[in-house]
Design goal:
Elements lengths: L4 H8 L10 H55 L21 E6 L8 E9 L17 E9 L2 E9 L16 E5 L1 E10 L9 E3 L8 E11 L10 E4 L1 H5 L8 E4 L5 E9 L9
Antiparallel strand pairs: 1-2, 2-3, 3-4, 4-5, 6-7, 6-8, 8-11, 9-10
């Protein structure tokens, strides 16, 4: 149907609606988009940080358990005597000091840690902590110490019981067992009454042959920095072992690493029925 001139004129005066977005609508859309991206980014960063903390904590726990397992295995073997299978052979005591400890610094300028020495009769077919073969008649001496935040073990094999070291071995002596171990502290349970149980614990026994247990603490830190925000106030080995008052039991560190003290008590099994 053809439009009349009047209809065409009326249609030409009808306003047309604007297509697209206004500037205000565009700004609102951009703002909402930015808020959404910021929210997603915040969730991602938070989840990633939580994952990092959990991962570092798992590494610390694994390292702490491993350190105590290695040291505990040696302490349980302290004073072992390789008795002949001959039924008429006489049982003799281990000729040496099964366990000994020194509070020292390895190397100079670092925090004071303990040096733990364990001795026992070796058996053919065994290896010491440095993977050296043990010969018949060898007495094996293992010394555990901290050097530059590394738990190390130095092995000595001799026909006669060597004297326990009074200071740290030379730098880089022995084998590395575990990194990121900051402290090693040991309390020794001594049997005064002869009932083969610890009557009290001390860091410096007067008679090492009275030692029947050892309470060991290792302080392990996370391999990476930036795990925690700000300073961390953590329980140190002195606090974990109960040798200091409440205020000194905690240490504040500003390097954003996680730290944890691990403690375990081990019986010197070969000291049973063999006390002086």
């Amino acid at each position: 149907m053809n439009l009349t001139l009047r209809d065409r004129a009326r249609n030409s005066r009808t306003p047309h609606h604007q297509a697209g977005l206004t500037l205000l609508e565009m700004l609102i859309s951009i703002s909402l988009g930015l808020l959404l991206v910021f929210g997603i980014g915040t969730i991602f960063v938070g989840s990633n940080q939580t994952y990092r903390v959990q991962e570092e904590n798992a590494r610390i726990q694994e390292a702490g358990r491993y350190a105590l397992e290695i040291i505990g295995r040696n302490l349980r073997q302290a004073g072992y005597a390789d008795i002949s299978i001959d039924p008429v052979a006489t049982k003799t005591a281990f000729q040496g000091t099964p366990v000994n400890g020194v509070n020292t610094i390895c190397p100079l300028g670092t925090p004071v840690t303990d040096l733990l020495t364990v001795q026992y009769d070796g058996r053919v077919g065994e290896q010491d902590c440095q993977a050296n073969n043990v010969n018949a008649g060898d007495i094996v001496q293992h010394t555990f110490f901290i050097e530059n935040n590394v738990l190390r073990c130095n092995a000595v094999r001799a026909a006669a019981a060597p004297a326990p070291p009074a200071a740290c071995p030379a730098a880089n002596t022995g084998v590395e067992l575990l990194n990121n171990v900051e402290d090693l502290q040991v309390l020794y349970g001594i049997d005064i009454t002869g009932d083969q149980s610890a009557d009290r614990y001390t860091a410096t026994p007067a008679n090492w042959n009275q030692v029947v247990t050892a309470r060991v603490c290792v302080l392990v830190r996370s391999p990476n920095i930036g795990v925690v925000a700000g300073n961390q106030n953590f329980l140190n080995c002195a606090g974990a072992l109960g040798t200091v008052a409440a205020g000194a039991a905690f240490t504040n560190a500003a390097d954003t690493r996680l730290r944890r003290a691990f403690v375990a008590t081990f019986n010197l099994r070969n000291r049973v029925n063999n006390l002086p």
